[in-house]
Amino acid sequence: MQLPTIYDDDILRQERSFVPEGPLAARVYSLVFPPIGFFPFSGLGNGDYYGFYWSIGREEEPPLVALSSHDRFSLIPVNSSIETFYACQLARSGADDDDDDSFLQVDYRQLVTAATGRTPEQHDRRGLAFDDYDQFLTLDSTSAFYLCALGDVLLGRNDVEAAERQYRASLDALPEYVAAHFGLASVLRRQRRLEEASIHLRSALIGPLPFYGGSFWLDTCLPSDFRNDWNRKSVMWLQRSKKLHDSLVDDPFAARINELTFATGLAENNDIDVLQQIVEAYATSGDYAQAARVWILVGERAAMETTSFRERYNLNPTTYGSRLAELFELSGNDRRAALVRNMLGELEKPEGMYL
Question: Which InterPro entries does the UniProt entry name for this protein (predicted)?
């Protein structure tokens, strides 16, 4: 199942099947959140959805399952596949929730069947608490969320070596997982491996903001208190690094970290100018993939500001989306570029001052 090049806001046709007058046309509301590559398939209400997510650079591979936590501008990579999503949801159900009329047994099972063409296997493991991370990893050993959450628990116990293994495994599952990069950087700093930590501090700051690890829902919020104010800490720690890792010597983002504040709510913000210059520096060097990542960051930062702010920087869906598609194309990521162009064409107000 490859990343689609045509956007669908109900990819498994679950919600549209309940519309008496026929299927609704897909609607696109934003090019920023949920991030490009997320396709909803099950609504929880209040704008929150489970959906498929294709990791950047893995458009040809099967997707993982993520939860879009609308009120917290966050995306939680809960499971590595829709089959393991079902297995973990089933494990959290009670012993009396196994009748065929239950929501879990009918609807979630139908989601797997719709996605794979196969009825999912059932199991007898029930009643797991949401934070039984070890147990859930026996059902989904490559869940980026559960691996990172267990890393948080182990770091809280000061078992830094085991925590490091968990964070690295989480990044193997989802390379752009900001929360795992920040967790790994925290581990490396405790071990005084500061130059190595600088790699992951940069990755935490440059990665997709919705993957920071927060959630409106308690059971999908990463557990450690050290994540509070993670963004400010990442900036401060990277700016105070006496020596960056050798791989960052010529890196445009690392070179200009002292000019960035990551502040929000300002009438004018020099960060936007600096980030745009960083995008062009990556593009000039031929690193279009990194240019696209930083351009995504520009869009996320602009989306948190006012309409007049975005007007001042000429950032609207047309200008932002066109440049993003171009950078994806230049990086050789044709599928994601085609998706962006399709989404841009389907926006309700493509010239509107929103992202």
Answer: TPR-like_helical_dom_sf
Region at 249 (left for phi over 0; alpha for psi -120 to 50; beta for the rest): alpha
Residue 42: partners with Cβ closer than 8 Å, 6 or more residues away: 12, 14, 49, 50, 51, 107, 108, 111
Distances (CA, A) of 277 to 173, 272, 298: 31, 9, 11
65 belongs to a structural domain: no
Residue 13 phi, psi dihedral angles, 5° rounding = 60, 30
Rounded distance, CA 182 to CA 199, Å?
10
Residue at 234 is within a domain: yes
- Residue 193 sits in a domain of what CATH number? 1.25.40.10
Q: Dump the DSSP string for 292-304.
A: HHHHHHHHHHHHT
| Domains of the chain: total | 1
What is the secondary structure of 57-111 as a DSSP string? T-TTSPPEEEEEEGGGTEEEEEESSHHHHHHHHHHHS-TT--STTSHIIIIIHHH
Summarize pLDDT for 158-204 with one digit per residue, the tens: 999 999 999 999 999 999 999 999 999 999 999 999 999 999 999 99
Record the pTM.
0.93
Given a contact cutoff of 8 angstroms between Cβ atoms, the answer to whether 92 and 105 are in contact is: no
Cβ atoms of 97 and 105 within 8 Å: the answer is yes
Both tokens of residue 318? 């047309």
Strand partners, 64: 53
Contact 149, 222 (CB under 8 A): yes
User: What CA–CA distance (Å, rounded) separates 271 from 308?
Assistant: 16
